[in-house]
Every structure is written in structure tokens, then in C-alpha cells.
Structures
1.
Amino acid sequence: MNNLFYNTMKSLRMSNWTPKGLLVALAAGLLLAACSCSADAPKSIEAPKLTDASQIDLPLLKYLPTDEDNRLIDKAIERYKVQCGQRFGVTLPVEDHYIDPAIPQRRYGLINRDEVEKYGYDLPPVPGQQKNNKEGDAISPKQALEDEVRVGKKPDGSRSTLKDAKGNPLPEGGCAQEAWDRVRGEVPFDYEDFPLRLMDEAMDLTEADPRHIEAEKDWSACMRKAGHEFEHVYESGDSVRKKDFETQRTMALLEVDCAQEANYPGRAMAIDIEYQRKLIKENEAGLRDALDKKNKLVANAKKALK
């Protein structure tokens, strides 16, 4: 199997399945090919029991924004966006965005059985998510103007020609881009990439560890009792991806029950933590820089909200 494809699919399986997760996964597949990080795996491990994804606690998360940080940053962006819209005579609505959890909910496969009972392999619906207009639906002139000011493009996709009272054109990318740039300041757009790459690297090392392989074997043995032959945890979901929901849900419940029987999530996390701690020691300078950038971004957001 192509290594880049394998690393990409593996990273997606262990992430929250966001568009950014896809980009990080693709980058990880390329970067890990050049990685020479290795270590002798410890012989034993003390594994916690994970029954809820909120229990996931990883050392590298320190270098990434928390849920509270992301909410703060989002509020600051909304404030600047509204201010920008006012320059162009438009009152942009304050959007209450759903913030993806900082904790990677599916890093070790399915954990939350109550969610699996309701949604199978699907993620729970986003709280308060607004439905977008369907393609072909008419939008009001007011909404069309708001959209143009927000994203900097006319309904036909061409760049906006709107100008403010002083004759200044609408910034490229609209008020949303201007707001993000103001909050970001000198913090680069890719400030999260380094710790995220190390998260993927730790997962790669974890999956190659003999103790992780043993944990998956225990999970596989449980699945075999139900008549399924899988080597890796992510294979069960892949096997029913094109099936109807009830078939998917049945497989998802079996996967999560076997994961709990083998304590796969807890064992995987314990190994993951070991490798993350090692990577932190090996990459102190780069992570310190990432942490400084994260703290700067949060400080900028707090300043905007004063």
C-alpha cells in the first residue's frame, strides 16, 4: 500500500475529520517519510480506562489552543468583522460559530458508546448549526450584500468593488479576512503546524509499538468472536462505509464494545503519551516557539475584547 495514502487515511481516522485535519494528514504523510525519530519501546505500561473522549489528556495539547482559547479568538474575530462592516455601511450579524473540540475525539477510534448508539460512526450534529441556503435558492439583496462584505466577493464570484466613505476598497477576502489578520497580527497562519505534526508523529510511533500491536490483537480477537476479521481498529468502520446506517451502527457498537473489552483506547493513549513526552524533549525550541505564538494570538484576542 502507498505509504502516503496509508498515513493520510490513518491520520484522518484518528482525527476529528475536519478539513484542516485533511491538510495536516497529507502534510504528515510527507514529513514523516523523512523522520528518523525512534526509540526502544518500554516493556510494560500502566493504562487508564477511557470511556469518554473528554478523558483524553495529551502532553502536546499544551502547545495548541484550548477550547476556551478558540472561543476567545472567535469572539475577537467577530468583533473586528462587525467593525469592518460598519465602514461599508453594513451591519454584519455576529456569528456564534461551533468550535471543534481541542481534544482529538477519534484519535483512538470510537470511545463514547452513548454517541455511537445514536449516530453510529457519524459525529454528533453540531449544536446550533445553521442550515446554508441550498444551491439554487434565492437570497435577499440584504443577505447578498452582507455576504459580499464578509468574504469580499460578489454573488458571481468576482472580487467586490465596494468602497468605504473614504474611497478605500473592501479588503481582499472581505471583512472576515481583515478581522482574522487583525487578531493574528504577526502570528503566522501555520503557527499550529509544528505541534500538530508532532502529534501525528507520536501516533505513528504509537501504532508501530509492540504494545499497541498487542492491544489491537486483543481488540481483533473480540471482533473475531462476532465473525469479523480485522487487523486494525479503523478497518471495521471502513468495511461498512458504503452500507446503510443501521449496518454501520451495528458495526460501530461492536467496535466500541470490543475496544472497551480490550481497553484499547486507554492502552493506546498511555503509549502515545510516552512518545509525546519524548518528542517534547527532542523539540523544546520549536515547541517553545509554537507556545509563544499561541500565547501571542490569545493575548491579541483578549486585547480586542477589552
2.
Amino acid sequence: MEAISVYFILLLLFLLYLRLGTQKQLVKFEKPIQSLHELLEKSYPIQCSPSVYEYMDVLDENADSRDTMIGVVTRLHHEFHIGDSRDHLIVAGDAKTYQHLQEIKREYGEQLSWLIPFPGDFHILMNYQPVLSKVYTLMWD
């Protein structure tokens, strides 16, 4: 409770300082200040194309073996027309799927340069949750 009252007093002092100590005239610029976007656009004139998002569930396949994952990767290559309509494909999955994708990508090298394995959203959240819980527990204890 004491910490809250200290923060409240500091906040009041800061607001009083802003009210009394910063009554200065505004400076008018002849040229408007460039936004970061405009500055980057002038410095690095790169043309970007919008990304295409498509989702495909491969639920009837079990990620229990490398052979299964090689079959799934081959299927994805054909279904998404890799090399014709797009150059890369992000494939997300659970921990075992991610592990198999990393292994076959390492084994096949340049042939699978289009494949970008990524852990699924739930698995990322599941791995961050203990870290966040620990941080917030330390803050509020």
C-alpha cells in the first residue's frame, strides 16, 4: 500500500511540473518534419509486394516419421506450386513436426531451400508461458 501512495505522490509532482515548468512557446517549423516512413522510403527505395496467406490442414498424416514428413513436404510442393507462383513456404506444426522438418531440410539442403519450418502458435505460447509467469510472479511478490 505504501508503494502505491509513493507512486501517486510522484505522479502528482510530475503533473504539477508539467503544468508549471513547461509553459514555453511552440516552435513553428517552415518545413514539416519527415515521418520515419518517408525517410526510409527515400533512403531505401525497395519495392515490396504483399504476402499471400493460405492455410492447409494436413491432419490425416501423423508426424511420427521422417518418411511421412517427406511425403507431406512433397505434397505441399506440388499443391502450392513452389517455384512457379511462390518461392518460399512457411510450414508450421507441433514440436515433432518441426523437428522432422528441420532434419529433412538439413539432409536435403538446397533442394528444400524453399521450406521454412516454424513452430506452431500454440507451441510458441506454451514455451513462453512459464517465462512470463515467472517474470510476473517475481514482480508481484
